[in-house]
Request: fold
Amino acid sequence: MISHYNIIAGVLQTHTFDSVSRKAFGVENQAMLGLLPFSHVFGLMLITHLGTFRGDEIIVLPRYTFLTFLKAVSQYRIRQLSIVPPIVIEMLSKQDVCRQYDLESVEFLYTGAAPLGKETVDDLLRIYPKWRLGQGFGMTETATVFIQSSEHDTFVGSTGSLVPGAKARIVDVDGNEITDYETPGELLIQSHSVSLGYFNNPKATSETFFTDKDGRWIRTGDEVLVRKAPSGNEHFVVVDRVKELIKVKGHQVAPAELEAHLLTHPHVDDCAVIQVPDPRAGEAPKAYVVKSSSAKQKPEDNVTKDIHRHVEEHKARYKWLKGGVEFIDAIPKSPTGKILRRKLREKERQERVAKGAKL
Reply:
């Protein structure tokens, strides 16, 4: 349940945060692409409400296609691209198409809905070295972002800093507060934009929201750490979803780390990593991979071996894909590009049942 108060607070917090960079770069108004679904909090808040509030021109695309997207960027001289990681990956894999359009107007690329892996960032900056890259971090339950990158303080690998009016706390598995840099824990957030709770679901509300002597907080379910940027400012780095971390013999493996690495391999067009049961390690990482066009011409066994080798040559042993590699036509995702791991976990569970495995 998101109140009008939550929406107004979210708009004012983000507007105040952005105003510093906009002033520094001489931007009063700009054209923004209405590319993301307005039914999702990213498109609804950061494009529709925020854009209207500050007087931006919003170019609404009836439906997304890669060519329509590129054509709009070129035609309307889009300066800031607010998109999701799957579109970034599509840009990297279709450079022959991108080169047919004038993207010189782009100065700042802002992504949200899912983390952007370091390898993807490196590839993007290699092709577009003049672009400044930023990320936002938020939830539907918080009326969009509470952490985001400032255009004048970008720090590759981070999702930015707290917006005005928001407070953060990082806790370990026992609920103890973490105050050291580079130490991961679950992120708790307090903000005027935090929603009222879940409609007609008191159990979920009590599990996600709580009140203590310092006020009302939301458990984000995300593991983060704080890192000092070269500017001296504190930035948040998202490690992974707490519930999605893979526990291998006591080690924690972040699916997002493996996914970002896999996407650097020429055989991989898209991918997702989940945990599967392992009799010795407890859990093991398993990769679902969409093969690139070049990989489709090769024997599947060879492609599988190449992918395993790619991980084993660069990652610690407990991060190896002991759960296997399975090829799939498409990775299930939400309209905003978030990987729907639950669908892959259910698919994998059904496959184990069919093989007679005990659950």
Summary: The mean pLDDT is 89. The radius of gyration is 21 Å.
